[in-house]
Write a structure and sequence with these properties.
Shape of chain A: globular
Order of helices and strands of chain B: HHHHHHHHHEEEEEHHEEEEE
Number of strands of chain A: 5
Mean pLDDT of chain B: 87
Structural class of chain B: alpha+beta
Low-confidence stretches of chain B: none
Number of helices of chain A: 5
Shape of chain B: globular
Helix content of chain A: 40-55%
Distance between the termini of chain A: 21 Å
Largest sheet of chain A: 5 strands, parallel
Oligomer: heterodimer
Helix content of chain B: 40-55%
Mean pLDDT of chain A: 88
Radius of gyration of chain A: 13 Å
Structural class of chain A: alpha/beta
Largest sheet of chain B: 8 strands, antiparallel
Strand order of the largest sheet of chain A: 2-1-3-4-5
Number of helices of chain B: 11
Amino acid sequence: MSEGSSSKRKILLVDDSTTVARQLQKIIENLGEYEIVGHAKNGAEGVKLYKTVKPDIVIMDIVMPLMDGLQATRMILQFDERAKVVMISSLGGVGDKVVEALKIGARNVIPKPFDPEKIKTLLSEL
Amino acid sequence: MGVKFFGQYLLEKKLIGREQLLDALEYQLSRNLKFGDYAVKKGYLTEEQVRSIQHEQKSLDLQFGELAVRLEFLTEGQVREILTLQKNDYIYLGEAIAEKGFLSKGAIDAELEAFRVEQEQYQVGRVTMPPETREPTVVEVIVDLSVKLLGRVAHMVVKAGTPEVVEGLLELPGEGVGISFNGGFNGLALFAFSEENARKMAAKVIGDDGASKEPPEVILDALQEFVNIVGGNVVAKLGQMGKTVDISPPEVFGVSYEAAGRQLIVFPLHTTEGAITLAVVS
């Protein structure tokens, strides 16, 4: 994870999979305009890190141990109603959980497998 | 990329907004009545009978109408009548979006065609299956998407070999990593790799050749992530086909698997990186 460079937008990753974190880190670092400022492995840790690192964007998995991404998103939005949270899902935008995520205020859904071009477009719109 | 539903496609193309999609989904849900709602509306069932059927459904894997006939609440003719009504009244998301005025009917038709073309790469191909395969449609989707995603995610060229039904204990070439399905399909897709094979596969999934030398937990995490992607895409594909299925997080199994009364079909997958075992349990 890179440090410093205040001109870059700060991203917090919340996902229990180190593989996903590595995949996203590679894609995001290649974009050049963002820096990953933290990686939480469950929702509770994600909420805590949000309050300390104050990222510009949160990329959040839905299914995670201890606290899932939906509950964590609710708590982050309660703390900061302008928080920009995007969800990660392998469900291709299908399913109650994805619809619920959008309902509670997630900005968008990143489907898996990841497409770097789509991630670039999606992040630039936030 | 990946299997997706029409709403997600429209969102990505910015043809509708998030609020409009949620609004259209809610409208679609309110228009597409459930079987029990029709039965009450027609005066064939009382609310209490509907509740009792729903209660029975929790322990019996049967469709609502099938159960209603078993309980002698409905005749088979009434079930057919309601199914026809339900089918005729059903509105698709595209129709809901057009009826809400978010896009014109013409625009929806054009986008549906473009969506069909985009999703063509995920159309289920022909998979050879033993004749006794239970739930052949679902099994076909699992095998077909596994092959396609091994290509897309792990950049492997894959060919599915001749499947066989295995009775009793299945010995695996390495630790099995599987994903369970429940709801419209109760089963498991279990992948097993030899150690060398697992390391190559993990490096491909992570997108870093050096990752093949990582500790076992990193390798296993990458394999679980691959299995998770397969599971999610299977759920999405089955959803497009009108079957609602849910998945649980991936699990790691040992080096053998006991079918224990369930059907276990092994599909050998021959890849450019060696053989992979895919076992589908139903």
